[in-house]
Amino acid sequence: MQTYKSAATLGPRTSRAARLAMLGTLTLAVVVGRTEVAQPAEPVPAVAAIAGAPAPGPNDRQITLAVRSYLEREHFLRRPIDDEVAHRWFDIFIEMLDPMKVYFLQSDIDGFSQKRHLLDDLVKRGDVSFAYEVFGRFLQRVDSRLPLIDRLLKAPLDFTTEESIVIDRKETSWAKSEAEAEDAWRKRIKYDLLVQKMEKTSTEEARDKLQRRYASFAKRMHQMTSDELLEMYLTSLTSSLDPHTSFMSPGTLENFEIGMRLQLDGIGASLKAEDGYTTVAELVPGGAADSDGRLKTKDRIIGVGQGGDGSIVDVVDMNLNEVVKLIRGKRGTVVRLKVVPVGETAPKVYDITRAKIELKDAEARGEVIERGQKPDGKPYKIGVINLPSFYMDMAGARQGQAEYKSSTRDCRRLLDDFKRQGVDGVVLDLRNNGGGSLPESISLTGLFIDTGPVVQVKDADKRVQPYDDVEPGVAWDGPLVVLVNKFSASASEIVAGAIQDYRRGLVVGDEATHGKGTVQSLLDLGRQLFQRLPNAPSLGAIKITMQQFYRPGGLSTQLEGVKSDIELPSITTHLPVGESDLDHAIAFDKVPRAEYQSTGRVSDEMVTTLRDRSAARVSADEEFGKVARDIAQYKKRKEEKTISLVESEFAKQWNEGKAADEEEKKLEEEMESRRRPVVKQDFYFDEAMNVTIDYLKALTSGTASLARTAPPAAAQRLQPVPTP
User: Fold this and answer.
1) CA atoms of 387 and 428, how far apart (whole Å)
2) 67 is in which domain, residue-wise?
3) 386 vs 384: CA distance, rounded Å
């Protein structure tokens, strides 16, 4: 299933990109400056046309030369594109196309491998013919599998036979013959049908669904454009240096910029491609479609027309990017959607007037929570800020707009409101915050500390530069708690690391944050290559790792992340989603400590006491006990390389791993949701509030007196105070 946020930042995901889907980008700036692109030594040979494959784009060579030049000159590692990089590039590109090794044959891979060591030479000439050669063969294999899949879906399958399927890609291999390929697909179809059975889908419905899924996949592959293929191929190259350097096609660049400025023109809907249909995943609150009221979540869009009388284009099985292009448009214009409403079979046509969509639920939001009891009998008032990303309207900033969109400005307004309401403490929730703008992370940290270094940055020449908060004063000088998890990355880690180094507040959450300690700059290729043209063509951009950042204390967050002062048990701590789980990640290191003054708001003795009290509550809590059992089951399942295709055994393994699967699905849904609550009040958040109130008490009455107070039992967990 592919997901596209027509009102957000993410586009369709590749199998490799899915691992990074929850992470944002720490961008220094949109750089517009010089370029020195090497000229080809000889003409690039034409690519032979392959039936069904996209034709090479007119700008492929120029873009490729520019990307290669920037990688060698500007990337943090400053390493040449050599044979080692070429081998990595080859492996990543093949994995993107066929991650589970079910389409290509070993003979295909052997044939491609003859050019593995030549990719670095080809790229120097801007020659991307290898991408079209491989993709053409991929399309042939995809098409040849469809009759086999149809036959297997119609054939009787025995779910009592003792056999299993390998679920660890590293343990699998490509089939050496068509007979081996057929056996691999037989097992895959059995696996798919068992999954559908576990999800309570009837046998007939499951077979129809899978047949459509694979046919739709084949059709989408045939719809891939030259821009999309070039993006996949060049991102395979950039990912050979580090996992956060990538090439963005013009369409991907547009989506990235929408996510940073949090607005666009359209109907305001998150769409996803599911088994050949474009389905409404969610409506943006207050958007055009939401206000119209007819379009609903899970409705299927099967046609799109322009204006009041434009012909309706059939979009069934259409590439999701192309569907989104048809639906987006200038505010004030009309788009007509042919829709099959959820639960119905007859289509309806909705005419919706496009409007400016502001992604309000993607910006910082706040709420005041009342918990516990102060010595005077009144409840503690805790101001919670939910910050999903460090956003900044780069174009607005570049143009000098006075009120361009900024996460720091939004958080300052929330803090001012908290002070008016007389809160006792502030919780900054950075869970699932994948990052964003580097300047925003610095200015936002400055809301809580006075002037001083927030982050240190080292460039490719090994020069270390501290970046300071230069604005005197703070927006909030009271108690502060920062909530994090393993999906808190990049800019989130800068803020959490600085707060911890300054002893300004507590960091509470998973064992450690994600571990992304690198800085990317966005180089717009059109502006780079055509600086003298007033309207430079859109050629996409390269997001390139140019620096590594370090905490004020000198430690990099790369790979290791920021360790929580108080760890709360969570399955996310154990998921393989950290920087250290990514291929070709840049190494951890240190730089000298910057000059800064600790605030003394947190002491080692205080942390030890708070940690002990939290651990006592957690150990007695039934919900956290269930988490511990889920973690144990997940660890056991993680060690398994295969899964049984005997139905009874499959069901057992499925149920054992269900907790982790549901946690991952829940996290993804929460981050994609446009109607997420500011505060999700569950047992995990309750314990975070307990820690916060313990911290407030420690600050007001002293750690020693707090330590003498017995920790409350789980049954006495702090409850919300009813409000009138």
Assistant:
1) 7
2) 2-38+55-252
3) 6
Residues 182 and 142 in one domain: yes
Residue at which a domain ends, from 252, 285, 319: 252
For the CA atoms of 236, 241, 243, 244, the dihedral, rounded to the nearest 10 degrees, stands at: -100
Which one-letter amino acid corresponds to residue 8? A
In this structure, are 416 and 325 located in the same domain? no
Residue 547 and residue 589 in contact, taking contact as beta carbons nearer than 8 Å? no
Residues 599 and 462 in one domain: yes
Any domain includes 699: yes
- The label of the residue with tokens 């129809």 reads 208
Mean pLDDT over the full length of the chain: 86
Can you give the pTM of this predicted structure? 0.81
- Tell whether 185 and 317 lie within a shared domain: no
Q: What's the rounded Cα separation, in Å, for the pair 654 and 679? A: 31
Name the band, by pLDDT with cuts 50, 70 and 90, for residue 19. very low
Give dist(CA 544, CA 192) in Å, integer.
Answer: 38
Task: Mark residue 165 as left, alpha or beta (left: phi above 0; alpha: psi -120 to 50; beta: remaining).
Answer: beta
Q: How many CB atoms within 10 Å of residue 47?
A: 18
What confidence score (pLDDT) does residue 362 get?
Answer: 76
What is the spatial distance between Cα 459 and Cα 467, in angstroms, rounded to a whole number?
A: 13
- Whether the CB-CB separation of 339 and 347 falls below 8 Å is answered with yes
The reply to whether 49 falls in a domain is: no
Please identify, among 358, 385, 400, the residue that sits at the C-terminal boundary of a domain.
358
For residue 318, how far is the Cα from the chain centroid?
24
Amino acid, res. 204: E
Burial of 17 (0-12, 13-18, 19+ CB in 10 A): middle
Supply φ then ψ for residue 539, to 5 degrees: -115, 5
In a domain? residue 722: no
409-458 residue pLDDT tens = 999 999 999 999 999 999 999 999 999 889 999 999 999 999 999 999 99
Amino acid, res. 532: R
Both 343 and 463 in one domain: the answer is: no
What distance in Å separates the CA atoms of residue 622 and residue 602, rounded to the nearest whole number?
A: 30
User: Would you say residue 45 lies in a domain?
Assistant: no
Query: Do residues 350 and 402 both lie within one domain?
Result: no
The DSSP letter of residue 716 is G
| Domain CATH code at residue 343 | 2.30.42.10
SS3 call for 264: strand
Please state, in angstroms and rounded to a whole number, the distance separating the CA atoms of residues 482 and 488: 11
Q: Residue holding tokens 């929460």?
A: 670
Q: Give the tens place of pLDDT for each residue, 292-310.
A: 999 998 899 999 999 988 8
Q: Which amino acid is at 232?
A: M
Give the pLDDT score at 32.
26
Q: Are residues 302 and 284 in the same domain?
A: yes
How many structural domains is the chain composed of?
Answer: 3
Which residue in the block uniquely carries the two structure tokens 């990074």? 20
Q: How confident is the model at residue 29 (pLDDT cuts 50, 70, 90)?
A: very low
Identify the band that residue 356 occupies on the pLDDT scale cut at 50, 70 and 90: confident
Largest Cα–Cα separation, the chain = 83
Same domain? For 179 and 212 the reply is: yes
Q: What CATH number is associated with residue 698? A: 3.90.226.10
Instruction: Give the least confident one: 183-197, 430-444, 690-704.
Output: 690-704
Contact 355, 265 (CB under 8 A): yes
Q: What is the pLDDT of residues 228-259, one digit of tens each?
A: 999 999 999 999 999 999 999 988 888 787 76
Question: 3-class secondary structure for 534-576?
Answer: CCCCCCCEEEEEEEEEECCCCEECCCCCCECCEECCCHHHHCC
509 beta partners: 484, 567
Q: CA 565, 566, 567: angle at the middle one, nearest 5?
A: 115
For 446-527, strand residue ranges (E) read 452-459, 464-469, 480-484, 506-509, 518-524
CA dihedral of 358, 361, 363, 366, whole degrees rounded to 10 = 140
Q: Which two tokens stand for residue 461?
A: 């020449």
The residues annotated with a catalytic role in the active site are: 490, 501, 516
